[in-house]
C-alpha cells in the first residue's frame, strides 16, 4: 500500500500554488522557461561533478530509497552526493527528477536521520513539486546573462511573482515533511531533523529539549497573531526565504503527527472522494496557440514505452544594436505595466499572502496618489 499524496498535501501548499498560477505573468514565464530549459543539462552537471549513489556506490544509502519510494508510490530517483559544507538536500527535474544531498548534511545529521531526509525529498516528487521547484531555483538562482537579458526573464519576474514563488516554496516543504512523517510512522525524526538544521549539530554534546524548541514556535506564533505590525515584519523578513523557519516547521510536524487524519492515512482507513486532485492543481497549462506550435521530440529522446512528447518551439534570437544604441522597452509592456501590477498584488491580497493595508498602500503608490 502506498500513501496517496492527495490526502496528505498541506492545504497552504495547494492554495499557494493556485495563487502563483493565477498571477498573469506566471503563464508567460512558464512558456519561456519550458522553451529553453532542459532537464538534461542539470543531469550532465551532476554526472560530471558529483558522486552518483547506487547499488555499487555507497549502496548503504541507496538501499534506503526503495522502501521509501514504495510507500510514496513513486519510481526510485537517481541520488547524488555533492561537495558542500552547508547541510542540504534538494530535488531537481521534471520527467526524471533526481535527489542531491550535500556532504555537509552527513556532517550535521546522525546516520539514523538520513532516511527521513530522503523521504522528505521523495515527498516533493510524490506531491508533484519538482518542476515548479526547479523553475523557482532557476529563476532565483541566477540564470546566465543571455537568458536574463534576452529570454525575457527580466520582464516577467515582477515582485508579486517572486513573493508568490517563495511563499509557495515554503508551503511545499510542509507537504514534504508530512510525507517523511508518514514513512517514519511518527513525527519524532522529522522534528529532530528540524532541530539539527536549526543548529543542534550532532557533535554538540549537550542535550537539547524538543519541548523547549516547541515553546519557541508557540511563542513565535502568538507573537505574530497578536500584532499586525509583527505580521508585516514577518512578511518583510520571509518574502525571499524558500524554507519555513525551523521552530514553526517543527510545530507543524508535531501537530500533523498527532492529527486524526495522519492516523487514518497511516492505517489505510482514510478515503475522501471529494479531495482535490494534485494532478489537476499542478498540471501545466499552456495556451492553445502554444500547443498548436509545439513540435515533437526526436523519437530517440522519448522515454521507452511513451509517445514522443511535444515541446514548444523556441528560437533564441539575440537583438542586434548599433553602436551606442540602447535596448528599447516594448511598448506593450509600458501600456499594461501599472494595471497589470495592481492585479498581481490584488491576487496576492485575495490569497492572504499580503494584507489589505499593504495592497491599498501599493495601489496608491502605483497610481501616484
Q: Helix/strand-derived class?
A: alpha+beta
Number of helices: 21
How are the strands of the largest sheet arranged?
1-2-4-3
Oligomer category: single chain
Radius of gyration: 22 Å
Order of secondary-structure elements: HHHHEHHEEEHHHHHHHHHHHHHEEHH
- Round the mean pLDDT to the nearest integer and report it: 79
Number of domains: 1
- Beta-strand fraction estimate: 5-15%
Assign a percent range to the helix content: 55-70%
Shape: globular
Poorly predicted segments: 142-156, 288-302, 310-336
Q: Biggest sheet: strands, sense, closure?
A: 4 strands, mixed
Question: Can you put this structure into words, describing what you see?
Answer:
With about 375 residues, the chain is of the alpha+beta class. It has one domain (about 5-270). About 60% of the residues lie in helices and about 5% in strands. It is built from 21 helices and six strands. It has helices at about 5-10, 10-20, 25-35, 40-50, 60, 65-70, 105-110, 115-125, 130-140, 145-150, 155, 160-185, 190-200, 210-225, 230-240, 245-255, 260-265, 280, 290, 330-350, 355-365, and strands at about 50-55, 80, 90, 100, 295, 310. The strands form two sheets. A four-stranded mixed beta sheet has the order 1-2-4-3, with helices on both faces. Strands 5-6 form a two-stranded antiparallel ribbon. The longest helix has 26 residues, at about 160-185. The radius of gyration is 22 Å and the shape is globular. Residues about 140-155, about 290-300 and about 310-335 have low confidence and may be disordered.
Amino acid at each position: 500500500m502506498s500513501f496517496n499524496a492527495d490526502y496528505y498535501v498541506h492545504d497552504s501548499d495547494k492554495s499557494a500554488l493556485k495563487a502563483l498560477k493565477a498571477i498573469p505573468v506566471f503563464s508567460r514565464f512558464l512558456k519561456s522557461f519550458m522553451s529553453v530549459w532542459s532537464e538534461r543539462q542539470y543531469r550532465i552537471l551532476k554526472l560530471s561533478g558529483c558522486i552518483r549513489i547506487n547499488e555499487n556506490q555507497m549502496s548503504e544509502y541507496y538501499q534506503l530509497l526503495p522502501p521509501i519510494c514504495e510507500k510514496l508510490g513513486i519510481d526510485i530517483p537517481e541520488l547524488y552526493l555533492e561537495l558542500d559544507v552547508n547541510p542540504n538536500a534538494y530535488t531537481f527535474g521534471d520527467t526524471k527528477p533526481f535527489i542531491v544531498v550535500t556532504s555537509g548534511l552527513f556532517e550535521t545529521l546522525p546516520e539514523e536521520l538520513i532516511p527521513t531526509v530522503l523521504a522528505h525529498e521523495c515527498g516533493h516528487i510524490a506531491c508533484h513539486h519538482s518542476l515548479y521547484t526547479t523553475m523557482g531555483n532557476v529563476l532565483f538562482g541566477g540564470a546566465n546573462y543571455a537568458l536574463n537579458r534576452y529570454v525575457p526573464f527580466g520582464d516577467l519576474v515582477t515582485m508579486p511573482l517572486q513573493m508568490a514563488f517563495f511563499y509557495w516554496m515554503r508551503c511545499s516543504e510542509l507537504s514534504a515533511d508530512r510525507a517523511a512523517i508518514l514513512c517514519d510512522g511518527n513525527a519524532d525524526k522529522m522534528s529532530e531533523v528540524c532541530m539539527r538544521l536549526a543548529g543542534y549539530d550532532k557533535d554538540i554534546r549537550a542535550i537539547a529539549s524538543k519541548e523547549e524548541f516547541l515553546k519557541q514556535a508557540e511563542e513565535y506564533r502568538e507573537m505574530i497573531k497578536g500584532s499586525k505590525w509583527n505580521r508585516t515584519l514577518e512578511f518583510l523578513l520571509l518574502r525571499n526565504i524558500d524554507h519555513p523557519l525551523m521552530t514553526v516547521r517543527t510545530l507543524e510536524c508535531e501537530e500533523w503527527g498527532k492529527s486524526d487524519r495522519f492516523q487514518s492515512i497511516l492505517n489505510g482507513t482514510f478515503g475522501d472522494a471529494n479531495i482535490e486532485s494534485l494532478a489537476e492543481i499542478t498540471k501545466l497549462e499552456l495556451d492553445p496557440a502554444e500547443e498548436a506550435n509545439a513540435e515533437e521530440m526526436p523519437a530517440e529522446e522519448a522515454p521507452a514505452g511513451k509517445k514522443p512528447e511535444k515541446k514548444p518551439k523556441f528560437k533564441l534570437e539575440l537583438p542586434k544594436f548599433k553602436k551606442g544604441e540602447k535596448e528599447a522597452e516594448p511598448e506593450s509592456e509600458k501600456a499594461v505595466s501599472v494595471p497589470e501590477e495592481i492585479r498581481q498584488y490584488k491576487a496576492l491580497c485575495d490569497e492572504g499572502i499580503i494584507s489589505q493595508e499593504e495592497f491599498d498602500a501599493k495601489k496608491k503608490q502605483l497610481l501616484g496618489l
